[in-house]
Amino acid sequence: MPPVRQTPRRAAALAGEKDLSGRPVRELVGLLAAVEDGLRETRFLVHRRGVMAANPDVAPLLARERAVVAELRTRRFSQGVDHNPGHASGGRPTAATGPSPLLD
Fold first, then answer.
1. SS3 for 18-75, per residue?
2. Domain containing 33: what range?
3. How many domains does the chain have?
4. Which of 29, 71, 82, 96 is the most exposed place for a label (fewest CB within 10 A)?
């Protein structure tokens, strides 16, 4: 796999600003996409001292991905989104929703 070209935007996205709470949701989604691109382009195993070992560049990317997803989840919960629209509260059933009860 050829080396990944680091653009200034990608480097900033992957740099790992600790406080994500001030960022808008759209920016967080873009940041998550950049981190996932970085993970796809990074080899998980590399040769180190003649053996295959975990790439040390992967751990910070995974930590960044977890932080962004956690922030997106807090936004979702804080906005009062209906998390199970197929439940008794109404809405369209989801694949995880069981069959509707038979009514007489």
1. CCCCCCCHHHHHHHHHHHHHHHHHCCCEEEECCEEEECCCHHHHHHHHHHHHHHHHHH
2. 8-78
3. 1
4. 96
What is d(CA 2, CA 4) in angstroms, rounded to the nearest whole number?
Answer: 6
The residue whose two tokens read 């962004």 is: 68
How far is Cα 57 from Cα 45, in angstroms, rounded to an integer?
A: 10
Amino acid at 52: M
Q: How confident is the model over 40-92, as pLDDT tens digits?
A: 999 999 999 999 999 999 999 999 999 999 999 998 766 665 555 555 545 55
Within-domain flag for 71: yes
